[in-house]
Amino acid sequence: MPGRVVITGLGFITPIGNERAAVVASLRDLRHGLETVPWFPEAGVSVAGTVKDFDLADFNCAAWRWPERYALARETLRSLPPHGVYAYCAIEQALAESRLTRGELGDGATGLFCASAGSPRFLHHHLGEMLHSEGRRLHPWGVVRSISGTLNFNLAAHYGIRGAVTGFVSACAASAHALGYARDEIALGRHKRMIVVGAEEPTVESILPFAGLRALSRQADPLLASRPFDAARDGFVGAGGAAALVLEDADVARDRGAVALAEFAGWGQSADGHSVAQSEPTGAGLEAAIRRALAASGVDPMDVDYVNAHATGTPVGDRAEAAALRRVFGELGPAVSSTKALTGHPLSMSGALEAGIGTLALDLGFVPGQAHLQNVDPDCEHLRLPSTTLDVPIRTVLSNSSGFGGSNVALVLRAVR
Fold first, then answer.
1. 2: pLDDT confidence band, cut at 50, 70 and 90?
2. Which of 83, 126, 345, 382 is catalytic?
3. Which of 45, 75, 205, 273 is packed most tightly, with the most Cβ within 10 A?
4. pLDDT of 107-134, one tens digit each?
5. Separation of alpha carbons 224 and 233, rounded Å
6. Which residues contact 316 (CB under 8 A, 6 or more apart)?
7. Is 126 part of the annotated catalytic residue set?
8. Which of 32, 158, 177, 310 is catalytic?
9. Is 139 a catalytic residue?
10. Which domains does the chain have, with CATH numbers?
11. Residue in 61, 172, 372, 380 annotated catalytic
């Protein structure tokens, strides 16, 4: 019989805070982490979800700065991209909350799943040096600090992981996929513990190319730029950082005295089969993923208390998700909000971040309100979108993610007490 899987540790490096307490405070107060960024003015995109208290802009890691509480050795830094530093710091938080030591990670029954698009900034830099020098200047770590597998390469070596190590690249569904497959590894008895981390760099190279798809908001005011479900929304706000979760077999966690923050009850996935970049407008694919997740979890739709929506603020995507939620839950079902109004859209790390937020909501008993919502899109009016944070005990959370190619993932989390 498949085993129960629980979440025992969380780590956050995000636009709304760099540790658990700060993230909770921002969610409760609906305080966003979006800022004006000095990118190309003629591109018309000027707002992003930025990470504070880190300076990782230089191509030379010797010039990097991060909070003093984290100790990163030079031999680790030299092959890391900037978002690898975010990921390391988030994992350190998650391990501390789980009360795991580094020595326990090399037991062969602990794995690491990562989600990242790589570092477009570093890839461009290293390829530029190679081409400019006609192949005479090749950085020894240029490949492993740039390409999409960079997190799993670096972090598995750093932590001495001997279980499964894999990178996921399904765009904005990537870390949700990583979580789902990590859960399966534990539930099927292949591993007793999995670390999952998603991380991205909030740089012009990582975010601005989405303007070519007309997917980014062109609002200059951070309060107007990220507006999921609002009638005037005009695209998403790119963001970055890292989010990490420790998943464990429930019996293993109990026997070592770890505190279970939430149960990861089940998940579902699907594909739209519709478009490379745009959501299928009826939301049928996401609906299928949600129904599969609920069935796998043994959860009735009526028992879901809160949905952390994928809703990024794009006109078609939000409308499609609202339609899917209507068919699954009916009129005025569970409370719904998209915390991307506060964090921006952190691309491949969004599934991990929002699963972490869902875990906080279950553990502490609150529902984040829908920030920046002024006039609800008529096609979304059936959703119960609280304008303020609700301090209410909740038992079940659904977290949705969607990526390029119509990849849909739905995660179901449950309270453990």
1. low
2. 345
3. 45
4. 999 999 999 999 999 999 999 999 999 8
5. 8
6. 278, 279, 281
7. no
8. 310
9. no
10. 5-414 (3.40.47.10)
11. 172
